[in-house]
């Protein structure tokens, strides 16, 4: 298959796979390295046929555009057609990323997702997705070139965030 050709979609089955890219910061000078890494990794997965659509997640942070819009722009630069990109542009947390993406996923009859986020963040993102009854797996971009201190800080943050999210999810409806 040509690297820029869209993957074949099995229309008869009613089943779709999606790649869900979780947002990261947009800085004053543009998308952060983390956001760029995630978006490019999602594009590689799409070109490899891992999903028929991509959901770019993330609302407005400190600087425009929204994280979803920045992801979508990078995806288009990587050869993803606009009709394969959906934007969830309201979320500001991991829980909201998944919860606000649900209507888009359901509208497109998605039954399996690949969540693109950092390896340190993956377990929490998967916990949220599975809470909402999504068949999910995580795919993380390489951390090559990342600062060790930043990766350590992320890992330590997740050690505290994972149990807090487990508690938060107990109060969340599974049918949002």
TrEMBL record:
Domain of life where this protein originates = Bacteria
Occurrences of domain DUF218 (ranges): 18-158
Instruction: List GO terms (cellular component aspect).
Output: plasma membrane
What Pfam families does this protein map onto?
DUF218
Classification via PANTHER family: DUF218 DOMAIN-CONTAINING PROTEIN, INNER MEMBRANE PROTEIN, PROBABLE PERMEASE
Q: What is this protein called?
A: DUF218 domain-containing protein
């Amino acid at each position: 298959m040509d690297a820029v050709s869209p993957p074949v979609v099995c229309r008869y089955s009613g089943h779709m796979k999606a790649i869900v890219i979780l947002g990261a910061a947009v800085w004053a000078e543009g998308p952060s390295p983390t956001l760029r890494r995630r978006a490019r990794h999602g594009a590689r997965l799409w070109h490899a046929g891992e999903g028929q659509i991509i959901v770019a997640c993330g609302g407005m942070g400190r600087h425009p555009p929204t994280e979803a819009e920045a992801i979508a722009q990078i995806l288009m630069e990587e050869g993803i057609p606009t009709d394969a990109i959906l934007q969830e542009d309201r979320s500001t947390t991991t829980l909201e990323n998944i919860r606000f993406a649900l209507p888009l996923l359901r509208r497109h009859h998605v039954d399996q997702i690949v969540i693109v986020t950092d390896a340190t963040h993956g377990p929490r993102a998967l916990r949220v997705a599975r809470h909402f009854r999504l068949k999910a797996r995580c795919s993380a971009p390489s951390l090559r070139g990342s600062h060790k201190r930043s990766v350590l800080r992320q890992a330590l943050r997740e050690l505290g965030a994972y149990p807090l999210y487990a508690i938060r999810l107990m109060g969340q409806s599974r049918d949002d």
